[in-house]
């Protein structure tokens, strides 16, 4: 209220009083309307008029957090949907939390409904989450930096707490999708086992288990876990065409890790072929009766697989590691 | 056990020396193992030869300091040691917060050598402990692999593990750390476990438990054992491989191992109170239930008992599981600790525990790290796994589970590459052994002794008959000389590539002591940068005995070990809020930092600054983590975004943010800095000219800067010094005093973190 009184300082006492009263009532009315809207929908959809009335024009004693976004499918903004979901969680958590008060409201502007607001604020990217403080104009820090903080609800809440001192506890609607998927899988497996209850031989199929174990190993040693955690691009596009191999040893692309998994797999297959051709381990000597020609061919093919693909692997590694001196067959 | 190799004596082409087969194969085994030991030892000495016999890095300095303390004051005083020199003003109970196995090991060696009148300094024992243990690891790997497959495979595995970079990364000379001896204990425990499972004898089970005890005393990674062995038992139960042997070996191992592990003060009651250990207890209970049902079944083998066995087993498993969940829920069992939990939920640490996420060895692993650490083994170990699964038996179930779990953990965390390496060596040893065995079988190449055909050499001659017809039709069935020798040569080249790679990797990547740096000129001349020891030496000579040094936690152990001075935080990161306070001091401006530092009774501040020589691991580069950790505890005062430019870049030049240019860390790094080439004051590490230069310090003065500006030490002005050389701030004694009193009251009120 300080600002309004200051503004009114030059008026006559009577006008001052009515002015204060009227701003008071305007404010109360606004807050009431906003509360009503929030009760219906925890994120208030704003158009130009509403935006001007509730967000920009005084009197205000509340903070307004507004997300500027472009949700229409034609805009093809994939991240907008994610941010919207997280933002909705934040707004809902606040709406249904014991700390709920009328000092903070959540709004949202869609580009297709309020492109003039975007122009007014000179925004040319979406999504943006901005905070409009109760007093004064938004500062640079009042726009949230997704790149550094991330788009998780926790990050948004931390940022809001930073800007407004309102503490919100995230209440995520329990994510049943994982449980459902797990239950489905369980039911599927159980059902499958039940249907095949008279013929469970396949569970004793060592070949199948061995293949599963090997696939898991290939996934891990080719750095799929790194991809999962760091989320690198599939490959890198440059002016000179796509780059499939990351130049540094501390990074990798998704496609690169697939290539490495295939190279590893080829070496393993080559080596297994050689072993089988040479007679195999006791117990897997099915090929003993083969004629020598075919065994020789299989050995040579296996050897070529091992040497060529290992050399390829080595040269890819060499390209990534600075100053690595060794190579085999290929530079 | 399946012997891999067929006897090949029937060909009758062997030389007479092969007749004394047992002696010959033992001779080969012993020779190869000794050579592996020697090669492993020698390849770990690069650091000693290039620099000197010195303890490396950070944690080893603490281990060395504790060992020296134990040798000097005796074991019981070591167990009761309260270190008032660390974590000032809190102190640290060292005896109860370390794994003492390492200190006891080197202490016993020291005692033994001195009992034999060999006077050797404890430092040399510490430096050479890990290389010596690498040979023991090779032997235990040999035993493990021989138990799994054949002795030939065991020799391959032993040679691999002796030199593989994934293991030598943690065991070069001078790297005096728990992992160096723990991998030996790990492999030995696994070998003894398989032996006890195979024999079902109580003796071997007790041996397993004792080896497990040694592992518990040596490294926190013992949790891997106490989860993997129960997992193995559980898998065997599911596969219907229950046996009396399993019952005896696991129950003896579990009970004795549990009791022994609780004797380590640091572990204490954790084995019965935390989730990490619950798998072992649950499997124990399940095994008892299955054992009881089996007994009932044996009383009346006919009838409906089989169904009861299965249903009862399932019900017991469910019951045990629910019990553990219930106990966790009501709080009897502590839930998974953050460090372990982050292995499953890989995003957990990044959000909740920045101090774990900040350490580079806790990052996930790229494929090139796998290749760097394992080289050809990375694409041959799946072959060994393939044949282990295809020829499954009780022991190979174990190695399969070991491989799958270790490869997962290594994918999540670079550091856990260390637990993957041994199993990769085992499986690759098996793969190479199968292949070379087959390739060499019908040949009488002069290289034959390279392939240790040991087990088969003294096999019974009766088996030979089976293959008697083969030589006659050799031309049709055999692979022929050319193919065999071609393949052999190719694989020899692969193995040679492996060994040069190992030497190269150990020499270039893992043999840097990191407290002595080397730089190479254009002509290949070498220059040693010994700034760290210079600074720590200065501290120990020129500061008061009880001076308190503030630095970032990375350097705590080194200051305590080499400088022998009190530190505020160190590499044992047990108290996050204390670290955050130091981080906050570094991230605040000088005035605010001074308040924190006086509150913490700091006398000197030490920062590492690499700008003059282009050393990238300095404090400015680590600074963002200090900010992050400080923000975690003091979100009101520190905001990470303030330290970045508007565009979100991390810079130190004139574009940098104001907060950045005025924080304590920045000022202490660039104060009076005029080196680094042209223009003077250029920061070589960041490749930028600092944005804030020529400033004066108000509350601190420069005490010492090392030759290459690498370590800079500042002294805090005492608050009673009234003649503070200052140009901008009028430094009033009374204001300081008032502020100080205010601080103390704040501490008393329990809000010590909210300052000014």
UniProtKB/TrEMBL annotation, chain A:
Pfam families: OST3_OST6. It is a multi-pass membrane protein. The chain crosses the membrane at residues 176-195, 207-226, 258-279, 300-319. Keywords: Disulfide bond, Endoplasmic reticulum, Magnesium, Membrane, Signal, Transmembrane, Transmembrane helix, Transport. One of its GO terms (biological process) is protein N-linked glycosylation via asparagine. Pathway: Protein modification. GO terms for cellular component: oligosaccharyltransferase complex. Residues 1-28 form the signal peptide. InterPro entries: OligosaccharylTrfase_OST3/OST6 (IPR021149), Thioredoxin-like_sf (IPR036249). It is found in: Endoplasmic reticulum membrane. Belongs to the OST3/OST6 family. Subunit of the oligosaccharyl transferase (OST) complex that catalyzes the initial transfer of a defined glycan (Glc(3)Man(9)GlcNAc(2) in eukaryotes) from the lipid carrier dolichol-pyrophosphate to an asparagine residue within an Asn-X-Ser/Thr consensus motif in nascent polypeptide chains, the first step in protein N-glycosylation. N-glycosylation occurs cotranslationally and the complex associates with the Sec61 complex at the channel-forming translocon complex that mediates protein translocation across the endoplasmic reticulum (ER). All subunits are required for a maximal enzyme activity. This is Jg12292 protein.
From TrEMBL, chain B:
It is an enzyme of class 2 (transferase). The chain crosses the membrane at residues 24-49, 91-113, 125-143, 149-168, 202-225, 246-266, 278-296, 308-334, 370-389, 396-414, 420-440, 487-506. The keyword Magnesium applies. It is found in: Endoplasmic reticulum membrane. It holds the Pfam family STT3. Residues 549-605 form the STT3/PglB/AglB core domain. GO terms for biological process: post-translational protein modification; protein N-linked glycosylation via asparagine. Its main location: endoplasmic reticulum. It catalyses: a di-trans,poly-cis-dolichyl diphosphooligosaccharide + L-asparaginyl-[protein] = N(4)-(oligosaccharide-(1->4)-N-acetyl-beta-D-glucosaminyl-(1->4)-N-acetyl-beta-D-glucosaminyl)-L-asparaginyl-[protein] + a di-trans,poly-cis-dolichyl diphosphate + H(+). Keywords: Endoplasmic reticulum, Glycoprotein, Glycosyltransferase, Magnesium, Manganese, Membrane, Metal-binding, Transferase, Transmembrane, Transmembrane helix. GO terms for molecular function: dolichyl-diphosphooligosaccharide-protein glycotransferase activity; metal ion binding. Pathway: Protein modification; protein glycosylation. Its EC number is 2.4.99.18. It is a multi-pass membrane protein. One of its GO terms (cellular component) is oligosaccharyltransferase complex. Its cofactor is Mg(2+); Mn(2+). Belongs to the STT3 family. This is dolichyl-diphosphooligosaccharide--protein glycotransferase. It comes from Pararge aegeria aegeria. The gene is jg15910.
